[in-house]
Structures are given as structure tokens and as C-alpha cells.
Amino acid sequence: MTLATTPPIRKRKAALPRIPPRAQYFTASGVGNLAWLPFVHRPKRGNKSATMWRVTPTEDYRLAYTIGTEYAAHFVHFLRDNPARPGGGVLRKILADADLNDSSPTGGYVDGFIHYLELLLYHQARQMDLYAYADQCHERIDRIYQDDAACGEESQND
């Protein structure tokens, strides 16, 4: 009688995080695909594992932080190249999927991402009248709600 032997278990090397290549996100429609962003995971089949924040776990905080700043640059570049996207709540969805309380080195991704966005906001804010821009935003939302109210009145009169 011979004893059956089980094949040895092969351990896969853990994927190492890497800085994503820089990309262009321009589309003629102005509505690019969010799955193009290096931290977004949208599988072709099924929605169960879809996430707006998928990062490779790491023990290297500095590398995660560096990659997080690159992710933020990709995100802002995506918004700049797709003008129909800003204002649609994409940042909210990203932050909802990110673990903002991750105190492990992997948390460096979020820290770098947020730090970059804060610095970008600071530099942009120095070049514009912030309250005048807030007034423009108020006027825009007022127009949207006035249009919605007008549509509701028309449907009631029909």
C-alpha cells in the first residue's frame, strides 16, 4: 500500500504596491469611466466586489503615502479631463469606501490622498474669490431647484 502524498502548497508572493503610471482621462463626452482610476475596482461581472477605494495592503507607510498622493493627482486629473463629473459626489463615494480609521501602514494611502487634496485646495483658494464662487454655486443650485419646481407645476397642469 502506498501513501498518497499531497502536493506542496505554493504560496503566492504578496503583490507589492506600486506607483501607477500617469494617464490621460479625456473623453469627448466629458464623462469618463471611473474604473479607469487606479484605485477604483469595478469588475466586469457582478457588483459584489466593486469599490471606489481598492489598495494593496502594505507595511510601508511612506510608499502608501506616496501612492496615495499619486492617486489624488489621478483623481483631480480625471475631474479636469471630464468636466461633467465634478459635483456628482465622486469624492464622497471614494471616501465612503476608504477606511479613514486605518492606523496600519496601509492607512498611508488615505493620508497621502487627503493631504494632496488639501494642498491643492489651498493653492487654488489663493487664486480666487472664495465667497464669490460660493455665490455662483448657490445660484446654480437655485436654478436646478427652480427648474424642478417648474417641471412639477407643468405635470400638475397636464
Write the layout of secondary structure elements.
Elements: H1 61-81, H2 90-97, H3 108-125, H4 130-157
Key traits:
globular; 0% strand; mainly alpha; 158 residues; 4 helices; single chain
Helix content: 40-55%
Average pLDDT confidence is: 84
Please tell me what the overall shape is: globular
N-to-C span: 87 Å
Please give the radius of gyration in angstroms: 22 Å
Q: Which structural class best describes the helix and strand composition?
A: mainly alpha
Query: Helical element count?
Result: 4
The portion of residues forming beta strands comes to under 5%
Low-confidence region ranges: none
Provide the domain count. 1
Number of strands: 0
Order of helices and strands: HHHH
Major sheet: none
Report what the structure shows:
This protein is an all-alpha fold. The chain has one domain (34-153). 47% of the residues lie in helices and 0% in strands. Helix 1 (61-81) packs across helix 3 (108-125). The protein is globular, with a radius of gyration of 22 Å. It starts with 60 loop residues before the first helix and ends with a helix. The model has no long low-confidence stretch (mean pLDDT 84).
Q: In a few lines, what is going on in this structure?
A:
The chain has 158 residues and is mainly α.
